[in-house]
């Protein structure tokens, strides 16, 4: 599966899961979130196509069992940059993980205020080569909204 196809698959699966995700005015908020998820990701510095985009709805106050999405690459890739952005009035907190072809696992924590725009995650240079899997687990959200992780 090509990276672009994988990206579209992940975003489509997330958009399908939007029904009933909000307690306050669910129809309007779900529509706004679906529209945001369908838009192209923002870019801090666009240096080419993304390898994969992970995205999901974030429910207010979700705990450690919150939304988690992962993607596996057919061949090991080199990660240039990882960006986190979110939709809504609050913030989202989570863990970005990557696995290398050698089985090494690296986890980076991230907290993003949706009003501040795109956050570039600080991924160690030594962990960027030979990546076979990436994941993001949302562990907390201050409001209902959505998050998106762009792996370039």
Give your account of this protein's structure.
The protein has one domain (3-151): Jelly Rolls, CATH 2.60.120. 18% of the residues lie in helices and 41% in strands. It has two helices and eight strands, in the order ααββββββββ. It has helices spanning 3-16, 26-38; strands at residues 52-58, 68-77, 82-87, 91-100, 105-113, 119-120, 131-141, 145-151. α1 (3-16) packs antiparallel against α2. It starts with a helix and ends with a strand.
Which CATH architecture is right? Sandwich
Q: What is the SS-derived class?
A: alpha+beta
User: What is the spatial order of strands in the main beta sheet?
Assistant: 1-8-3-6
Q: Approximately how much beta-strand content do the residues carry?
A: 35-45%
Compute the CA-based radius of gyration. Answer: 15 Å
Shape: elongated
What CATH calls the topology is: Jelly Rolls
Percent helix range: 10-25%
Please tell me the total number of domains.
1
**Biggest β-sheet, characterized?**
4 strands, antiparallel
Secondary-structure element order, N to C: HHEEEEEEEE
Number of helices: 2
Task: Specify the oligomeric state.
Answer: single chain
The overall pLDDT average reads 82
Unreliable segments (pLDDT under 50, ≥5 consecutive)?
A: 4-22
Write down how many β-strands occur, each being a DSSP E stretch of 2 or more residues.
8
């Amino acid at each position: 599966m090509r990276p672009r196809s994988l990206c579209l698959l992940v975003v489509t699966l997330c958009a399908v899961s939007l029904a009933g995700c909000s307690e306050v005015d669910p129809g309007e908020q779900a529509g706004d979130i679906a529209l945001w998820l369908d838009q192209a990701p923002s870019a801090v510095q666009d240096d080419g196509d993304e390898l994969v985009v992970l995205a999901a709805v974030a429910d207010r106050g979700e705990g450690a069992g919150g939304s988690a999405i992962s993607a596996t690459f057919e061949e090991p890739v080199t990660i240039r940059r990882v960006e986190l952005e979110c939709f809504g009035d609050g913030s989202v907190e989570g863990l970005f993980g990557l696995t290398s072809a050698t089985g090494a696992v690296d986890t980076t924590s991230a907290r993003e205020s949706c009003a501040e725009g795109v956050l570039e995650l600080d991924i160690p240079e030594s962990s960027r080569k030979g990546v076979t899997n990436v994941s993001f687990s949302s562990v907390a959200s201050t409001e209902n909204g959505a998050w998106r992780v762009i792996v370039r």
